[in-house]
Amino acid sequence: MLEKYFEDEVRDGFYVPSMIKRSWAVALDVLSEVDRICRKYDIKYYAEWGTLLGAVRHAGFVPWDDDLDIAMPRNDYIKFCQVAKQELKNGYEIFNFKNHDNFHHFLARVTCTSRICFEDKYLKEHHGFPYIAGLDIFVHDNVSRDRKNQEHCEKIAEYIITVADNIADGSMNSEQEKDALKRISQLCNCDVSAYQNKEEERIQLYTLAENIFAAFKDDDCDEMTQMMPCSMYGNHMRIPKKYYDEIVRIPFENTTIPVPIGFDAMLSKRYGDYMKLVRNTGGHNYPFYESQKKQLEVLMDFKLPQYTFDGKKAVRNDDAANTGYKKIITDVMHSVKEEIEKIGHHINNGKFWTDNQTEDIIKNVQEKLADIQQALIETGNLIEQIKGENTQSVKCIEKFCDTLYMVYQGNTYDITGEFDNLNSVIENEIIMRKEIVIMPYRAADWSYVKNIWEQAEKNPETDVIVAVLPYYYKEYDGSVKEYVNELNDFPEEINAIDICSYNLELHHPDMIYIQNPFDNENKAVSVYKEYYSDILKKNTDKLVYVQSFHLEEFSSNDERAYKNMSSYCTVPGVVNADEVYVQSDNMREIYIKKLTEFAGDNTEDIWRKKICVKPEWMNDKKETTSHAGGKKRILFYTSISGIMQNQDGAVEKIERVLKTFKQYSEEIEVIWCVQELVDAVLPSLNRKLYECLNNIRNNYMLEKIGHVYNDKDKKLLCSCDAYYGDTSPVVQEYRNNGKPVMIMDYMV
Predict the structure, then answer these.
(1) H or E stretch covering 439
(2) How far apart are the first and last CA of the chain?
(3) Among residues 636, 638, 645, which one has the least CA distance to residue 675?
(4) Per-residue pLDDT tens for 140-184?
(5) Element (H, E) at 24
(6) In 685-747, where do the E strands start and end?
């Protein structure tokens, strides 16, 4: 898997940290192993729950989810559990209630390991992820056509499971246990015995409940369910078996995953408009490995290494030494001025060289003149090093040095007045000019600081330098894996340089803007130590961090989004910067809350002064832009969901829309995006409908109304000026960028 995959990423407005990506990668490895076994033994499986939704809507994980779920029909599940133990590669484990204590679930779990492991070999093989990760396998059982019989069996299973848990937990005395087992024996027409080991007794009863789940044969049923808990305790989830008549593979992250052919109807029944992004904050603790981490810390009686607050770095120390060239030049000019004042009354006296002066006095004046000249020559060299040749300052220094030489030879000049003129030139051309350094590291994020560069460029009294920061991908142990320098990927017109060619200490710019807030606190990438935020802060008068990603707005009640703030908010660049610019007032308040929780209640004032909302001029303007021929570009999105939910009228509606677009072809360019799943599954779902849609596409291309694409090229899809069509993950991107969005109504 490419190293770039493990970088923090914003997906559909949600921040996904590197550690989550690593857990995904391990889960995908486990999926690959399960897939290998299933292919070998002809075992049927398919994506389920959030994984199914993610596969269809995101072509991968739901961004705010961290687990992987599949399902199997009961017979396939039994077969898999039988062969998995000997087939799974070394180190992998399969858990179910029959083979592992304290696993009281009616499903199987396949994991990459049975324990947390920080060994080098293991971490190298598992993407630097030390925790237990894998996937859950849910079981689908047949549902009887006889509703009363089905409900009767469910009630018996409920009773058996309740008794099993109460016995194992010690909630029943021996008499109650005896009566309960007797009743179960009568209900199931079998002999159920008490065990001395109550966990073994629970397994016996769970197995009996599973047999009841699997009581109905394929030929007697039209529906399936996930019996526990979706068809018990008042729940009655039913899934038509015809949805699973055929299985198709669709893209999922860097691989493919099987999904039932009837996924659209199934997802629509569960979620309604399932293409609409709705953050799900329920379910298990997030991220799942956090509980493992806490257990490890308790067991080892120490905290795992993590970034901690340093109050001395959060607030600027004005005592820090400024060794920049402006300070050097200012000090030299001040010193020269003092020396000139000391000898000025001698030199300005026209009779000084002719009067009978002592040799010591003349020698002293000449030595001071030579020292002044040398100091100014060195200053001129420094200015040329920083500003290049032919500056007015260097010309004036050269002229003044000539004057000093003439005075040295015994001539009389008003060097005080000439020095004041030189000092004024240097002050205006060098000292008073602002120097701003913008320090991006990824070309893809340049748009977030582009307006800062443009604003600075317009100011004739400001020098702005774009100094690209190289970075490197990290090994699991933090060492360098691969260096990356994107200097050549930035626009030519900004004249970007490599930061390594820029002497920060010597320049000591007035302001530095940074986009990388991590220093070495990110699991995927880092920068050279000399460019950590605390070092940068010492070499500038103001360090500014600019949030260079856009998130869907959320509150601290959105536990998953708020939890992930520790990956980009409570990090060195934010803590150490003098100013931090975020996307909105709401985000500012959340940053302040998170940082205060991190650093202590007594630090809130620090963050209130430091965290700012981006002013309007700083935001990247997402104005409508003219494309080929000056036309506006419209994205027309057609999804498998939209087609399947409106089968009768879908073709007619799409034809009407395209006809309308054609009428305005002089003004607009249409990008028609047909979701990739349409071609993958529609032929199996509705061949006639697919052929009609294909005819429309062919005519559309022949008539050259616009262009047809699938949904793989997200960058292209997001480049349009407005959105029209079915709901899709791209909609949020348009809304975030302030572009018009209209969801198509098939009934109009």
Answers:
(1) strand 434-439
(2) 46
(3) 638
(4) 999 999 999 999 999 999 999 999 999 999 999 999 999 999 999
(5) helix 18-41
(6) 706-709, 722-725, 741-743
- pLDDT under 50 in the chain at which residues? 283, 623-626
Helix/strand/coil for 300: helix
Place of tokens 């920060």: 504
CA distance 262 to 49: 14
Q: Under the phi-then-psi rule, with left for phi > 0, alpha for psi from -120 to 50, and beta for the rest, what region is 288?
A: alpha
Compute and round to an integer the Cα radius of gyration of the chain. Answer: 36
**Cβ of 363: how many Cβ atoms within 10 Å?**
11
Q: How far is CA 579 from CA 422, 468, 544, in A?
A: 36, 20, 5
Of 521, 526, 529, which is closest to residue 569 (Cα–Cα)? Answer: 521
Contact 4, 444 (CB under 8 A): no
Alpha helices in 524-646 (DSSP H): 533-538, 559-563, 572-576, 585-599, 604-610, 640-645
Separation of alpha carbons 516 and 469, rounded Å: 9
Is residue 25 a contact partner of residue 9, using CB atoms and an 8 Å limit? no
Question: Are the C-beta atoms of residues 108 and 136 closer than 8 Å to each other?
Answer: yes
DSSP, res 475? P
User: Which pLDDT score is estimated for 558?
Assistant: 92
| Mean pLDDT score of the chain | 91
Question: How many whole angstroms separate alpha carbon 745 and alpha carbon 646?
Answer: 10
3-state secondary structure 315-350: CCCCCCCCCCHHHHHHHHHHHHHHHHHHHHHHHCCC
CB proximity list for 682: less than 8 A, separation 6 or greater: 640, 643, 644, 689, 690, 693
CB 72 within 8 A of CB 140: yes
Contact 239, 142 (CB under 8 A): no
User: What's the confidence (pLDDT) of residue 623?
Assistant: 47
Cβ distance 336 to 419 under 8 Å? yes
Return phi, psi of residue 114, to 5°.
-105, 0
| Phi and psi torsions of 262, nearest 5° | -95, 30
Report DSSP letters for 274-291, one per residue. TTS------SS-SSTTHH
With beta carbons less than 8 A apart as the criterion, state whether 177 and 204 touch.
no
* 179 Cβ contact partners less than 8 Å away, ≥ 6 residues apart: none
Give every CB contact of residue 64 below 8 A, 6+ residues apart in sequence.
14, 279, 280, 281, 286, 560, 561
DSSP string, 486-505: -GGGS-GGG--EEGGGS-HH
Short-list 703, 610, 617, CA closest to 655:
703
Helix (H, G, I), strand (E, B) or coil at 270: helix
Q: Which residues contact 330 (CB under 8 A, 6 or more apart)?
A: 431
Residue 621's pLDDT is what? 61
* Residue 449 near residue 513, CB atoms below 8 Å: yes
Contact 513, 544 (CB under 8 A): yes
Choose among 661, 659, 662, 671: nearest CA to 711: 671
Which run of H or E residues covers position 251? strand 247-252
From residue 1, give the alpha-carbon distance in Å to each of 376, 479, 647, 682, 714. Answer: 58, 18, 39, 31, 20
CB 15 within 8 A of CB 564: yes
User: What pTM was computed for the model?
Assistant: 0.89
